[in-house]
Design goal:
This protein has 211 residues and is mostly beta strands. The protein has a domain at 4-9 and 101-210. 8% of the residues lie in helices and 39% in strands.
Length: 211
Amino acid sequence: MRSKVAFVLTGALCLALAGSVAAYNPNGEALPPGAQEVEVYYRPLTTTGEPDDGAEWQSIGLSNATQRARSWNSLPTQGSCNKAYWDFTFTSHASLAQWLEWSLTGTRKDWRILKPGEYASDSLGFTIKSNNDVVVFFADFGDLQYLGPDVPEGTQDTIETWYSYGDTFDEANARGWVRAADLNQEPLVIPNSNELHYGQSVKIWQRIQFG
Protein backbone atom coordinates (compact mmCIF):
# COMPACT_ATOMS: atom_id res chain seq x y z
CA MET A 1 0.00 0.00 0.00
CA ARG A 2 1.63 3.23 -1.15
CA SER A 3 0.38 6.31 0.71
CA LYS A 4 1.24 9.98 0.66
CA VAL A 5 1.86 12.54 3.41
CA ALA A 6 2.06 16.28 2.72
CA PHE A 7 3.15 19.10 5.01
CA VAL A 8 1.34 22.34 4.15
CA LEU A 9 2.19 25.83 5.36
CA THR A 10 -0.74 27.89 6.54
CA GLY A 11 0.45 31.27 5.29
CA ALA A 12 2.86 34.08 5.98
CA LEU A 13 3.70 35.45 9.39
CA CYS A 14 4.06 39.22 9.62
CA LEU A 15 5.70 40.87 12.58
CA ALA A 16 5.40 44.59 13.23
CA LEU A 17 8.46 45.82 15.10
CA ALA A 18 8.32 49.51 15.68
CA GLY A 19 8.61 52.58 17.77
CA SER A 20 5.03 52.97 16.58
CA VAL A 21 2.80 49.90 16.50
CA ALA A 22 1.30 48.93 13.14
CA ALA A 23 -1.77 46.85 12.43
CA TYR A 24 -1.20 43.21 11.48
CA ASN A 25 -1.17 42.61 7.74
CA PRO A 26 -0.81 38.94 6.69
CA ASN A 27 0.48 40.01 3.27
CA GLY A 28 3.18 42.31 4.62
CA GLU A 29 3.15 46.09 4.68
CA ALA A 30 3.20 47.88 1.32
CA LEU A 31 6.42 49.79 0.67
CA PRO A 32 6.04 53.59 0.85
CA PRO A 33 6.65 55.57 -2.36
CA GLY A 34 10.34 56.15 -3.00
CA ALA A 35 11.54 53.28 -0.77
CA GLN A 36 15.23 52.54 -1.44
CA GLU A 37 16.54 49.00 -1.20
CA VAL A 38 19.72 48.56 0.85
CA GLU A 39 22.29 45.79 1.11
CA VAL A 40 21.62 42.97 3.59
CA TYR A 41 24.22 41.03 5.60
CA TYR A 42 23.62 37.55 6.98
CA ARG A 43 25.15 34.93 9.22
CA PRO A 44 23.61 31.57 10.19
CA LEU A 45 22.39 30.67 13.67
CA THR A 46 23.68 27.73 15.68
CA THR A 47 21.80 24.42 15.59
CA THR A 48 19.95 25.53 18.75
CA GLY A 49 18.81 28.77 17.15
CA GLU A 50 21.23 31.04 19.02
CA PRO A 51 23.55 33.71 17.53
CA ASP A 52 26.81 32.18 16.33
CA ASP A 53 29.54 34.65 17.29
CA GLY A 54 32.09 32.49 15.51
CA ALA A 55 30.33 32.76 12.14
CA GLU A 56 31.27 35.50 9.70
CA TRP A 57 28.78 38.02 8.38
CA GLN A 58 28.37 37.91 4.61
CA SER A 59 26.63 40.21 2.16
CA ILE A 60 23.68 38.65 0.38
CA GLY A 61 23.27 41.67 -1.86
CA LEU A 62 20.13 43.44 -2.93
CA SER A 63 17.56 43.54 -5.75
CA ASN A 64 17.36 39.74 -6.02
CA ALA A 65 13.85 38.42 -5.45
CA THR A 66 15.19 34.98 -4.44
CA GLN A 67 17.72 36.09 -1.81
CA ARG A 68 17.16 35.12 1.82
CA ALA A 69 16.09 38.60 2.91
CA ARG A 70 15.68 42.09 1.44
CA SER A 71 15.45 45.49 3.14
CA TRP A 72 14.29 49.01 2.23
CA ASN A 73 14.58 52.45 3.84
CA SER A 74 12.04 55.19 3.20
CA LEU A 75 10.24 58.34 4.32
CA PRO A 76 13.19 60.73 4.89
CA THR A 77 12.54 63.82 6.97
CA GLN A 78 14.38 66.97 7.99
CA GLY A 79 14.01 70.14 10.02
CA SER A 80 15.54 73.53 10.60
CA CYS A 81 14.62 75.84 13.46
CA ASN A 82 15.75 77.03 16.90
CA LYS A 83 13.48 74.55 18.68
CA ALA A 84 14.79 73.13 21.93
CA TYR A 85 14.31 69.58 20.67
CA TRP A 86 12.90 67.60 17.77
CA ASP A 87 10.98 64.35 17.89
CA PHE A 88 9.93 61.94 15.19
CA THR A 89 8.54 58.40 15.00
CA PHE A 90 10.64 55.57 13.62
CA THR A 91 8.64 52.59 12.34
CA SER A 92 10.11 49.21 11.37
CA HIS A 93 8.20 46.36 9.72
CA ALA A 94 9.45 42.80 9.26
CA SER A 95 7.31 40.58 7.03
CA LEU A 96 8.52 37.06 7.70
CA ALA A 97 7.53 34.28 5.30
CA GLN A 98 6.55 31.02 6.93
CA TRP A 99 9.37 28.48 6.81
CA LEU A 100 9.39 24.74 7.36
CA GLU A 101 12.04 22.15 8.19
CA TRP A 102 11.04 18.49 8.40
CA SER A 103 12.53 15.03 8.70
CA LEU A 104 11.02 11.52 8.60
CA THR A 105 12.20 8.47 10.50
CA GLY A 106 11.28 6.27 7.54
CA THR A 107 8.98 5.91 4.54
CA ARG A 108 8.37 2.15 4.57
CA LYS A 109 6.72 -0.23 7.03
CA ASP A 110 7.13 -4.04 6.95
CA TRP A 111 5.49 -6.77 9.01
CA ARG A 112 6.33 -10.47 9.37
CA ILE A 113 3.36 -12.22 11.03
CA LEU A 114 2.99 -15.88 11.88
CA LYS A 115 -0.51 -16.07 13.38
CA PRO A 116 -3.84 -14.22 13.14
CA GLY A 117 -4.55 -11.50 15.67
CA GLU A 118 -4.48 -7.80 16.28
CA TYR A 119 -1.14 -5.98 16.23
CA ALA A 120 0.11 -2.40 16.55
CA SER A 121 3.50 -0.73 16.31
CA ASP A 122 5.26 2.54 15.63
CA SER A 123 5.10 3.13 11.87
CA LEU A 124 6.16 6.67 11.03
CA GLY A 125 7.76 9.51 12.92
CA PHE A 126 8.47 13.03 11.79
CA THR A 127 9.94 16.18 13.26
CA ILE A 128 8.73 19.57 12.08
CA LYS A 129 10.07 23.06 12.70
CA SER A 130 8.05 26.07 11.60
CA ASN A 131 7.08 29.56 12.69
CA ASN A 132 3.33 29.07 12.19
CA ASP A 133 0.65 26.39 12.02
CA VAL A 134 1.37 23.36 9.83
CA VAL A 135 -1.30 21.07 8.40
CA VAL A 136 -0.37 17.46 7.63
CA PHE A 137 -2.51 15.93 4.87
CA PHE A 138 -2.78 12.19 4.17
CA ALA A 139 -3.69 10.72 0.78
CA ASP A 140 -4.20 7.23 -0.65
CA PHE A 141 -4.21 5.56 2.78
CA GLY A 142 -6.26 2.38 3.00
CA ASP A 143 -6.31 -1.21 4.23
CA LEU A 144 -3.24 -3.24 3.32
CA GLN A 145 -3.82 -4.99 -0.01
CA TYR A 146 -2.87 -8.55 -0.92
CA LEU A 147 -0.14 -8.43 -3.59
CA GLY A 148 -0.02 -12.09 -4.59
CA PRO A 149 -1.85 -13.90 -7.41
CA ASP A 150 -5.62 -13.60 -7.75
CA VAL A 151 -7.54 -14.97 -4.77
CA PRO A 152 -10.75 -16.99 -5.01
CA GLU A 153 -13.92 -14.93 -5.26
CA GLY A 154 -15.29 -13.98 -1.85
CA THR A 155 -11.93 -14.42 -0.13
CA GLN A 156 -10.73 -11.41 1.84
CA ASP A 157 -7.70 -9.82 0.15
CA THR A 158 -7.07 -6.96 2.59
CA ILE A 159 -5.79 -6.53 6.14
CA GLU A 160 -7.84 -4.09 8.18
CA THR A 161 -5.65 -1.13 9.10
CA TRP A 162 -5.95 1.80 11.54
CA TYR A 163 -3.69 4.67 12.61
CA SER A 164 -3.25 6.85 15.68
CA TYR A 165 -0.51 9.09 17.03
CA GLY A 166 1.24 9.69 20.34
CA ASP A 167 4.64 9.56 21.97
CA THR A 168 3.90 6.08 23.35
CA PHE A 169 1.60 3.21 22.43
CA ASP A 170 -0.56 3.86 25.51
CA GLU A 171 -1.03 7.48 24.46
CA ALA A 172 -1.94 6.52 20.90
CA ASN A 173 -4.29 3.78 22.08
CA ALA A 174 -6.02 6.16 24.50
CA ARG A 175 -6.46 8.76 21.73
CA GLY A 176 -8.33 6.24 19.60
CA TRP A 177 -7.74 4.70 16.19
CA VAL A 178 -8.74 6.05 12.78
CA ARG A 179 -9.48 3.63 9.96
CA ALA A 180 -6.82 3.99 7.26
CA ALA A 181 -9.16 5.30 4.54
CA ASP A 182 -10.71 7.81 6.96
CA LEU A 183 -7.25 9.25 7.64
CA ASN A 184 -7.43 10.80 4.18
CA GLN A 185 -10.31 12.97 5.45
CA GLU A 186 -8.68 13.95 8.76
CA PRO A 187 -5.68 16.27 8.34
CA LEU A 188 -3.48 16.69 11.38
CA VAL A 189 -3.13 20.32 12.47
CA ILE A 190 0.03 21.21 14.38
CA PRO A 191 -0.64 24.63 15.93
CA ASN A 192 1.93 27.38 16.27
CA SER A 193 3.89 27.03 19.52
CA ASN A 194 7.33 27.57 20.95
CA GLU A 195 7.88 23.81 20.72
CA LEU A 196 7.10 23.93 16.99
CA HIS A 197 9.63 26.73 16.50
CA TYR A 198 12.43 24.52 17.84
CA GLY A 199 11.21 21.17 16.50
CA GLN A 200 8.09 19.20 17.37
CA SER A 201 8.05 15.43 16.92
CA VAL A 202 5.01 13.33 16.06
CA LYS A 203 4.92 9.54 16.11
CA ILE A 204 2.23 7.73 14.09
CA TRP A 205 1.26 4.18 15.06
CA GLN A 206 -0.23 1.53 12.80
CA ARG A 207 -2.68 -1.13 13.95
CA ILE A 208 -3.66 -4.15 11.85
CA GLN A 209 -6.13 -6.97 12.36
CA PHE A 210 -6.81 -10.19 10.50
CA GLY A 211 -8.25 -13.59 11.30
